[in-house]
Amino acid sequence: MPSSTRGYAVQSAGAPATPHSFTRRDPRPDDVAIDILYCGVCHTDIHHARNDWGRAVYPLVPGHEIIGKVVAVGTAVKGFKPGDTVGVGCLVDSCRHCSACDAGLEQHCKEGATWTYNDVDRHDRQRTYGGYSERILISEAFVLRVPEGLELSSAAPLLCAGITLFSPLRRFKAGKGKQVAIVAWADSATWASSSPRPWARR
Ligand SMILES: [Zn+2]
Ligand SMILES: [Zn+2]
Predict the structure, then answer these.
(1) Whole domain around residue 179: which residue ranges?
(2) Counting ligands in written order, which one lies closest to the CA of residue 40?
(3) CA 136, 65, 93, 79 torsion-angle sign
(4) Are 144 and 170 members of one domain?
């Protein structure tokens, strides 16, 4: 049955995020229910809050750098259990059968990925609401395991700004001795310049 959740929502373009109660969907068999501990503030959140891109729908609950604890799992969930520390990033679903999804590139889903907030769930057509909230339900296919030992409040920005930087470095095999140039801005640039790992530098 749907559950009431508290969060912070932007009610109109340029308005501040204010306390807001809303309903999360019915849990599905492949759903992981997550109590949210931390959520990063991405500049995308600010763009949507201001409707800079002209596609914000209000009320809008931002947040796609989510760290939390699993509190319940659906009957079909195999990879997670209550108590696990997990993360959720920018997308929460995709068609799962196109060539992009088959290649593990769900962000390029030919039918369009479902974004964590300011989007529409592809099954029930309900709006998606993000991590500036107490709880979220996500299909296990889009839940990420968070390794032991990470400082959780610092780990949250890895889910968008961090991965945006890390993914191309890994793809192009940046490593010791390799010189790279990074064109980045905002959060990702911060990660590039502050990373303790030498692959971000000469
Ligand atoms: Zn982001
Ligand atoms: Zn797809």
Answers:
(1) 161-200
(2) 1
(3) negative
(4) no
**What mean pLDDT is predicted for residues 61-80?**
97
Which ligand has the minimum distance to the alpha carbon of residue 115? 1
The confidence score (pLDDT) of residue 162 equals 87
**Does one domain contain both 85 and 136?**
yes
Tell how far the Cα of 115 is from the centroid of ligand 2, in angstroms.
Answer: 13
**If you measure from the C-alpha of residue 149 to the centroid of ligand 2, how many angstroms do you get, rounded to a whole number?**
33
pTM of the model: 0.89
Higher pLDDT, 63 or 175: 63
Q: Ligand 2 centre and the CA of 197: distance in Å?
A: 33
Co-location of 54 and 124 in the same domain: yes
User: What integer is the mean pLDDT of 152-156?
Assistant: 92
Which listed ligand is nearest to 90 at the C-alpha?
1
145 and 188 part of one domain: no
pLDDT of 193 above 80: no
Is 144 in the same domain as 189? Answer: no
Same domain for 116 and 77 = yes
d(CA 189, CA 12): 29
In terms of Cβ atoms closer than 10 Å to its own Cβ (0-12, 13-18, 19+), residue 25 is middle
Domain count, the chain: 2
Q: Report CA(103)–ligand 2 centroid distance (Å).
A: 9
Q: Which phi and psi angles does 71 have, rounded to 5°?
A: -115, -20
Q: How far is CA 85 from the centre of its chain?
A: 14
Using one digit for the tens of pLDDT, what is the confidence trace for 104-139? 999 999 999 999 999 999 999 999 999 999 999 999
Higher pLDDT, 182 or 8: 8
Cα 124 to averaged position of ligand 2 atoms, centre (Å) = 18
